[in-house]
Amino acid sequence: MTTQVNKYSDVSFWWNTLPAELTTANRPALTQDIDVDVAIIGAGYTGLWTAYYLQKRNPQLSIAILEAEVVGFGASGRNGGWCSAYFPTSIDKLGRLHGAQQARAMQDAMHATVTEVENVVASENIDCDWQRGGCISFARSELQRERAQDYVKHWHDWGYTDADYAYLDQDATNAHGYASDSLGGSFTSHVAAINPAKLVRQLGSIVESRGATIFENTRVTQIDPHVVTTAGGRVSAKFIVRATEGYTPQIKGMKRDIAPIYSLMIATEPLSDEVWSQIGLAKRETFTDFRNLIIYGQRTADNRFAFGGRGAPYHFGSSIKTEYDRNNKVHNSLPGVLAEIFPAASGAKITHSWGGPLGIARDWMASAGLDSDTGFAWAGGYVGDGVGTTNLSGRTLADLITGTASDLVTLPWVNHKSRKWEPEPFRWIGANAGLQAMTLADASENRTGKPSHIADVVGRFVGE
Ligand SMILES: Cc1cc2nc3c(=O)[nH]c(=O)nc-3n(C[C@H](O)[C@H](O)[C@H](O)COP(=O)(O)OP(=O)(O)OC[C@H]3O[C@@H](n4cnc5c(N)ncnc54)[C@H](O)[C@@H]3O)c2cc1C
User: Fold this and answer.
1) How many angstroms is it from 155 CA to the middle of ligand 1?
2) How far does residue 393's CA lie from ligand 1's centre (Å)?
3) pTM of this prediction?
């Protein structure tokens, strides 16, 4: 018997605890020039879902996936495991830009996407600890309670019902979980908790078993019309799909297309039944609260907390380095934030800390598109909402590439192009000022109990 060594065990808690059969990363690098129908750059969810649906639409297509590291090395193997219907651009902004019907169609497609992933997980026998427990957002102050009510009313104004987004009073909220100071909250059923690395690693094996070739340790340095350049060889392709999300600025000519922002997480040791009886989350509901600077968590299948937040600085020049995956200030603060929300978890041992870059377009709008003149396709800019949205990307790109007329290819994010990020140092100043403003807004709201206008300024920065 050969012993499998999980070389990537430091990438995240999820990677660290993958079963051995999912860590065998033995795919060769590209060493010669090849010619395929579709070349996909990046083996995260975006690249792999695109391959998956291309194979469904046309099993004859030859597909090469070029991955700088290994399948699931990026955000797809590190995230909080919320497979959600959240879309980074507000439905109001979509309505202003594209009309109410299109805005509504986009959100309906997001809802349907969570169900689509659920169906594929079942039909392909993907073991990724899928649990459709929904998401409970706690309102932990009077201000947050008003925000929760407004949030739900806003969705109802768009025609959704309590079955989609419901305001819950204190008792109904406690039935999901006991957060300190909770006065109520909102609940949506359109979220599932998953083990993200298990999903991405199995997706890789599925598309490979159906004929796609995955080249690992194969970094793409340049993309030209119908040609992709790597150190080991060039790939000629009718279509090229860029699926590199936060890493995009590393590709020649794409420095300002996406800004990589780090999100950071911790995992606790498995907690006892006694502790969980004081916390709840019995259906493995994902959770957050109504503060400004995003926090997110889930109860894992092995009864830990996996908990994360933004707040790490943007790094000058859109730099990405392994050392940025850990940030003492944020990682040291997360256990305290978790314990403050769930006092029963205070003292829980922190067994893992990690992080990774997500991708943000300058106008905060995700997009999926194809330039039919050059055969260049892309998808990304999901901010922190890519686990579900990447599946919609995969189906959309497969339809665009195969020329399939579907409802997906007319959604308002299709072929949307954000303006580029500012050159440095303005990008650094703007991105970090935005992060700082959210932190200040929360501090001010905790102190005064009144809404902070600083957050509105950030809203204007992101075009809301
Ligand atoms: C800590 C964290 C928590 C998050 N939590 C959530 C969450 O709970 N819910 C949610 O919906 N979203 C969450 N997100 C965001 C979500 O994980 C991403 O939006 C999603 O995984 C993006 O998938 P992707 O395939 O587009 O990109 P990635 O998974 O980042 O994949 C890109 C791949 O491209 C490869 N690559 C990059 N450059 C090159 C190159 N030049 N040549 C070849 N290959 C290259 C990378 O190695 C990588 O494997 C989180 C992100 C992070 C970092």
Assistant:
1) 28
2) 13
3) 0.96
